[in-house]
Structure formats: C-alpha cells, structure tokens
C-alpha cells in the first residue's frame, strides 16, 4: 500500500472512542461544566425572557432616567428610564440568537462548500481556494462593513455578514479534513462497496470531522457575538433602540460621563458570554486532540500456515497470460498499465499486467512491497488514486471493460459483482460508524432492503464469518473489535451481496498465525459455497502455497513469472521467484539456518533499470539481460528461464 493511503493516526480524528466519550470527558472538567451550565442558564433566560424579566424592555419611565441599582431596578435604568436588567435579559435573545443563526448558516454553507471542493480537487479546488484566500485577506470588520453597505443595516444584514465571514473558516476546515480523509482506506472501502458520491461525502466523511467542527463552532459562537455587538455598538447592527447588548453599550457610551455604571451590565454580559464560548471551545479542542486512538489490529509476524490445499480449479483459467495472449475468464485483466506523473515523465507503477480469473478459483499475486499488487486490485475497481491513471490495457468483467467504464457503471459493479477486502481492516472501517452500519453498506447501495432486514442480514453474515454474539456486536464500533474479528467483519461486508469476484488485499497480514489460518479457511469455505473467484494479494508465500490454484509473481509493476501453483513453486523459472522462496521463513531458516535476503530493493517506478528490471539484483544476470526489456514468454520474464529450469541452483 502507498503511504498516503495508510491509516496513520491523525490528531484531529474523531474516532469512535472519542465519539462515545468526549461528552463524558467534557462533563468531567469543572471549567467546561461551569461554562455549559452558565450558557444553558443564559439560553434559558433568553428563551423565557418574558417570564424572567421584571419589566418590558421598551417600557419607558422618563422620571427615573439614569438611576443606579435599587430595589425596583436591580441594575438601574438607562437614558429613557428603561430597566437595564430587563434589557440585558432580552438582549441575550438578540445577541445569542444572531450569533447562533449566523454560525449555523456559516457551518452549513461553509462545510458543504469545503467538502465539495476538497472532494472534487483539481482546478475546482485551486480556483475556490484562491477566492477564499482573497476574501480572508480582508479584515472581518471591513468585510462586514462592505456587506452592510451593500445590503443595508439591521439585524438580518449583520447576521448574514457574520455568516459569510465565518463560512470561510468552515470552508478551510472542511476542505482540509476532506483532503486528508479521502486518502483513507475506509473511503476506498465505501467506494468499493458501490456507495454514491454524496453518501460517501456526507455519510462517511462528514461524521469524521465532527470534532474539528464542534471546536470551531464553539469558538466562532463567541467571536460572532463579539462582532455583532461591535457592529451594533457602531450603529450598523441592531436598531439603536432595541434591547441588544451592543446597542446598550453604545447608549451607555454617550452617558459615560454622568452615569458610568450604565456600561457595566451590557459590557459584562458580552465579555462573560464570549469567555464562556472560548473556554468551552478550548476544552473541547484539548479533549478531541489529546485522546489517543485505540490500537489498531494487532500485527503479528507472519508464520507458517497449516491449511488443507484447495481443490484444483479449472486449468484453463486464472493463469496470468503471456503478452498478447487471449482472454477467457470471468475477469480478464490485459496489458494493464498505470502511470503517475513525476516531473515531466510518468512513473509507470504497473506495466502490462495480464491475467484471467475463473469462477471458483483463487489466483495469488505475490511480490515484495511496492511491486504493484495493490495498484492492480484498485485499478480493477477503478480506484486508482489520483493523479495516477490507467494509460493502457483493459479489465474485462462479463463483457464490460471496467478500465474505460464511467463512475455510474463502476458503482453498479463495486460491492455487488466485485468486492474488495482491504489490507488493514481497522483503517478500512470508518471509526465513527458501528460495525453493523458498515457491514450493510453494500446492501444499502445495491439492494432496496429495509434497515431492519439489512441488520438481520448483517447479523447472519457476522455469525457466518464466526463473530460470536453477532447481533449484539452489530452496535460495537471498530475499535471494540480485535484485529481478527475486524478482519472477519470486513469479509462479511465484502460478501453481503455475494460477489462473483473477491479482491482480497493482504486479508491476513494484520492477524496472528492461528487467526490467519481460520480466516483463510473461512474464505475458502465461502468461496466454495458461492463459486466466487478470488484474487489473493499477499507477500506470504506460505499463504499462496496453501490457498491458491495459480500464482503471478510481481516485480516492479510487472508479472515476472506465472503458472500453476505447484509448477511455479516446485520449479521456479525466474530468479526473483527463487529468491522470494529462499527468503521465506518457511524454508530452511525454520531449521536454524540464516534467512537469506534479496540484496537491493525494488527500483522506484520513475527510475527503472534498462533491460530486465530485476537484473541489478540477479545473481544469474548476463549482459543480454541489461539490453532490452524481457517479454513474458511461457510464463517467465527471464532470458535464462530454460537454463534455470535445468540447473540445480
Ligand atoms: N499515490 C501514489 N503516488 C505515486 N506512486 C504511488 C502511489 N500509490 C502507489 N504508488 C507506487 O506504486 C507502486 C506500487 O505500489 P503498491 O501499493 O501497488 O505496491 P504493493 O505491491 O501492493 O506493496 P505493499 O505490499 O506494500 O502493499 C509503488 O512503487 C508505489 O510507490
């Protein structure tokens, strides 16, 4: 897998643990608890102002102008003899209400725009971000003045102006999170299950940004209140006579010399409420960024797997094809080539990969890390990560070429006809949805089942793949599953629509040896039941030997050797296959010998050696190997295949 696709823990992720406990943690902090209680009191007072306030906020009493606190008027009176306490209470309605409305508008609009441009990427993103940068370079108040100058003054234009200013902050956050999240495995898994784009954006990715959005909202509520108060203070916001904290402060300013106390209640109300929002926002940020992500599935060293060998499949299928050979399976991959732009040249990460798969058989793809196994599987489902693209070749599935199919057609195949099990189940499940909700994703995408029926099916499947207490565990989050159980759940998810082809990318890498054997047995059993073709990607030759009918050995984006499992492993005809076999822990090293290694590394796709790509690491290389690319002939891409076959090396 590429590093960009790995599931590195992110500081701002709201994983399931946080989703279930951040409210608890917030309530355990005295400062947050105080802020929440005070804000609730403020909101309650605002809502029930007519019941709480001793006077009507507009009730004028000119005989009692500019009085200090008294029994009748606890916070005194203003320049028209109106009760200051009542006006502060009613003022909370306007100040808090306008702040809540403006921030809500900003959150909805800004988050939607940010998600969309982050998802679309390319020039949409570039143009939108230039506009956002330009708008953000204008100071907030100047921006608000401009909008008010255009639309006129009053509470509605003020609220709109603040909403536009803050929408920019949400666009940035949502776009940033989207750029990060769309690289994550669970997004690939949702796409591979056939979910439509809006559902992926709003159903899968949006819940993962709840953390940053909640923090931002808490802080922006305070700032919105401050800006609205400032605009009212300047006479641009709420009507000067209205009960609003900013307008009250403006009124108090005029009488500062004769009655200094008048500015204190509204000034304190603004300061206090802004502080409450800010402290709450800071605490939320601490909680949501400070919690450790639960450990992902255990990684255990690979070991020998004792499994019964599968029944041999139809010998005409599954074999990787020599260049130019004909097709014939349920899935035919032919000459598949993928390039990523690097500088002025393209880096060819796959180069002419060809193989066929027949119903009921397992074809193994093996090779070192970076040899192109995952890219092959992703390309079959049209999931090549951008900016990579298929530049040649085809992927024929039941007569359709998936390599040239549009998103609409691909979505109908993904999850239903061809499903994929991803490498690391913990990364492939969204941390904020329950296992039950995720296992039924392909069903929801392809079958019109009620939620109850889909849950029944999910429970059946989880039970079928060996998850104990399946129905109860539907409501668990991924982190509550062990690596082995998560892997089983991932298999259940892939099998919900009984696909004809299963792409299993390292389905057992994250598991210890015992669980590994159980999962492989299970896959084999389900395969037999469903007559499913499996493309098994692994770097573990023990797994291939135990489970595959045929195998393709990949090196540097090409299949370098292919054939029946036993032929390839008994009499390898490419030095790379030999080297891989010698380097496997299942060979002589198990008896105490030193484990041989393959010197050097897979060459980067942008700097491939001339001739045979393996020749710099090959102990059998001769001058001819360095001259021209070697085609795949009779199942081997080695000029000396015949000699190797004869030689006892
Ligand atoms: N997004 C990307 N941008 C550029 N190159 C990429 C990208 N994704 C993969 N590659 C390159 O494609 C090549 C094949 O990668 P791939 O993930 O298919 O290898 P792999 O054989 O599956 O390895 P592993 O066993 O580690 O998953 C590698 O050289 C990798 O660097």
TrEMBL record:
<feature type="domain" description="ABC transmembrane type-1">
    <location>
        <begin position="92"/>
        <end position="281"/>
    </location>
</feature>
<dbReference type="InterPro" id="IPR013563">
    <property type="entry name" value="Oligopep_ABC_C"/>
</dbReference>
<keyword id="KW-0547">Nucleotide-binding</keyword>
<dbReference type="InterPro" id="IPR050388">
    <property type="entry name" value="ABC_Ni/Peptide_Import"/>
</dbReference>
<feature type="transmembrane region" description="Helical">
    <location>
        <begin position="218"/>
        <end position="238"/>
    </location>
</feature>
<dbReference type="GO" id="GO:0005886">
    <property type="term" value="C:plasma membrane"/>
</dbReference>
<keyword id="KW-1133">Transmembrane helix</keyword>
<dbReference type="Pfam" id="PF00528">
    <property type="entry name" value="BPD_transp_1"/>
</dbReference>
<dbReference type="InterPro" id="IPR025966">
    <property type="entry name" value="OppC_N"/>
</dbReference>
<keyword id="KW-0812">Transmembrane</keyword>
<keyword id="KW-0813">Transport</keyword>
<feature type="transmembrane region" description="Helical">
    <location>
        <begin position="140"/>
        <end position="173"/>
    </location>
</feature>
<dbReference type="GO" id="GO:0005524">
    <property type="term" value="F:ATP binding"/>
</dbReference>
<protein>
    <submittedName>
        <fullName>Dipeptide/oligopeptide/nickel ABC transporter permease/ATP-binding protein</fullName>
    </submittedName>
</protein>
<dbReference type="InterPro" id="IPR017871">
    <property type="entry name" value="ABC_transporter-like_CS"/>
</dbReference>
<dbReference type="GO" id="GO:0015833">
    <property type="term" value="P:peptide transport"/>
</dbReference>
<feature type="transmembrane region" description="Helical">
    <location>
        <begin position="31"/>
        <end position="55"/>
    </location>
</feature>
<feature type="domain" description="ABC transporter">
    <location>
        <begin position="331"/>
        <end position="581"/>
    </location>
</feature>
<feature type="transmembrane region" description="Helical">
    <location>
        <begin position="258"/>
        <end position="280"/>
    </location>
</feature>
<keyword id="KW-0472">Membrane</keyword>
<keyword id="KW-0067">ATP-binding</keyword>
<feature type="transmembrane region" description="Helical">
    <location>
        <begin position="96"/>
        <end position="120"/>
    </location>
</feature>
<keyword id="KW-1003">Cell membrane</keyword>
<dbReference type="Pfam" id="PF08352">
    <property type="entry name" value="oligo_HPY"/>
</dbReference>
<dbReference type="InterPro" id="IPR027417">
    <property type="entry name" value="P-loop_NTPase"/>
</dbReference>
<comment type="similarity">
    <text>Belongs to the ABC transporter superfamily.</text>
</comment>
<dbReference type="InterPro" id="IPR003439">
    <property type="entry name" value="ABC_transporter-like_ATP-bd"/>
</dbReference>
<dbReference type="GO" id="GO:0016887">
    <property type="term" value="F:ATP hydrolysis activity"/>
</dbReference>
<dbReference type="InterPro" id="IPR035906">
    <property type="entry name" value="MetI-like_sf"/>
</dbReference>
<dbReference type="InterPro" id="IPR003593">
    <property type="entry name" value="AAA+_ATPase"/>
</dbReference>
<dbReference type="Pfam" id="PF00005">
    <property type="entry name" value="ABC_tran"/>
</dbReference>
<comment type="similarity">
    <text>Belongs to the binding-protein-dependent transport system permease family.</text>
</comment>
<dbReference type="GO" id="GO:0055085">
    <property type="term" value="P:transmembrane transport"/>
</dbReference>
<dbReference type="Pfam" id="PF12911">
    <property type="entry name" value="OppC_N"/>
</dbReference>
<dbReference type="InterPro" id="IPR000515">
    <property type="entry name" value="MetI-like"/>
</dbReference>
């Amino acid at each position: 897998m590429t590093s960009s696709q790995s599931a590195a823990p992110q500081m701002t992720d709201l994983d399931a643990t946080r989703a279930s406990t951040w409210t608890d943690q917030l309530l355990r902090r005295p400062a947050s608890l105080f802020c929440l209680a005070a804000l609730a009191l403020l909101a309650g007072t605002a809502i029930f102002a007519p019941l709480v306030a001793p006077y009507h906020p507009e009730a004028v009493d000119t005989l009692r102008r500019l009085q200090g606190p008294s029994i009748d008027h606890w916070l005194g009176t203003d320049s028209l003899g109106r009760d200051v306490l009542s006006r502060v209470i009613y003022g909370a309605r306007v100040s808090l209400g306008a702040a809540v409305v403006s921030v809500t508008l900003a959150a909805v609009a800004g988050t939607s725009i940010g998600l969309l441009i982050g998802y679309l990427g390319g020039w949409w993103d570039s143009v939108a971000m230039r506009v956002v940068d330009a708008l953000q370079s204008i100071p907030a108040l100047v921006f608000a003045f401009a909008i008010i100058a255009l639309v006129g003054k009053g509470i509605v234009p003020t609220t709109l102006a603040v909403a536009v200013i803050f929408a920019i902050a949400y666009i940035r956050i949502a776009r940033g999170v989207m750029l990060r999240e769309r690289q994550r495995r669970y997004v690939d898994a949702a796409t591979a299950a056939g979910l439509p784009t809006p559902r992926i954006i709003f159903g899968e990715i949006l819940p993962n940004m709840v953390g940053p959005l909640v923090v931002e909202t808490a802080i922006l509520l305070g700032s919105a209140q401050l800006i609205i108060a400032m605009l009212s203070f300047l006479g641009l916001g709420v009507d000067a006579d209205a009960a609003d904290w900013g307008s009250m402060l403006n009124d108090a300013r005029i009488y500062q010399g004769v009655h200094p106390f008048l500015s204190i209640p509204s000034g304190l109300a603004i300061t206090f409420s802004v502080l409450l929002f800010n402290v709450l926002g800071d605490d939320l940020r601490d909680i949501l960024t400070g919690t450790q992500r639960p450990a992902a599935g255990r990684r255990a060293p690979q070991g020998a797997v004792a499994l019964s060998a599968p029944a041999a499949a139809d010998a005409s299928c599954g074999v990787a094809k020599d260049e130019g050979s004909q097709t014939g399976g349920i899935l035919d991959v032919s000459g598949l080539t993928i390039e990523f732009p690097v500088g002025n040249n393209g880096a060819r990460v796959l180069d002419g990969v060809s193989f066929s798969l027949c119903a009921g058989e397992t074809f193994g793809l093996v090779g070192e890390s970076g040899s192109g196994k995952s890219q092959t599987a992703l390309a079959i489902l049209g999931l090549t990560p951008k900016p990579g693209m298929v530049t040649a070749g085809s992927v024929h599935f039941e007569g359709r070429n998936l390599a040239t199919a549009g998103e609409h057609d691909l979505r109908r195949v993904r999850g239903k006809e061809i499903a994929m099990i991803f490498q690391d189940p913990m990364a492939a499940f969204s941390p904020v949805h329950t296992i039950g909700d995720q296992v039924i994703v392909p069903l929801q995408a392809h079958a019109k089942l009620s939620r109850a029926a889909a849950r029944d099916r999910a429970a059946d499947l989880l039970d079928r793949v060996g998850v104990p207490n399946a129905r109860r565990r539907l409501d668990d989050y991924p982190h509550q599953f062990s690596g082995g159980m998560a892997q089983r759940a991932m298999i259940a998810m892939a099998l919900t629509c009984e696909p004809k082809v299963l792409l299993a990318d390292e389905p057992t890498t994250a598991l210890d040896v015992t669980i590994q054997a159980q999962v492989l047995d299970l896959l084999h059993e389900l395969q037999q039941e469903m007559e499913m073709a499996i493309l098994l990607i692994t770097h573990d030759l023990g797994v291939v030997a135990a489970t595959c009918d045929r195998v393709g050995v990949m090196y540097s984006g090409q299949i370098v050797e292919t054939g029946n499992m036993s032929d390839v492993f008994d009499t390898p005809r490419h030095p790379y296959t030999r080297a891989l076999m010698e380097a496997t822990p299942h060979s002589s090293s198990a008896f105490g010998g030193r484990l041989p290694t393959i010197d050097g590394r897979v060459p980067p796709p942008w700097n491939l050696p001339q001739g045979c790509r393996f020749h710099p690491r090959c102990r059998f290389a001769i001058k001819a190997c360095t001259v021209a690319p070697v085609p795949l002939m009779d199942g081997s891409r080695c000029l000396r295949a015949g000699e190797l076959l004869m030689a006892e090396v």
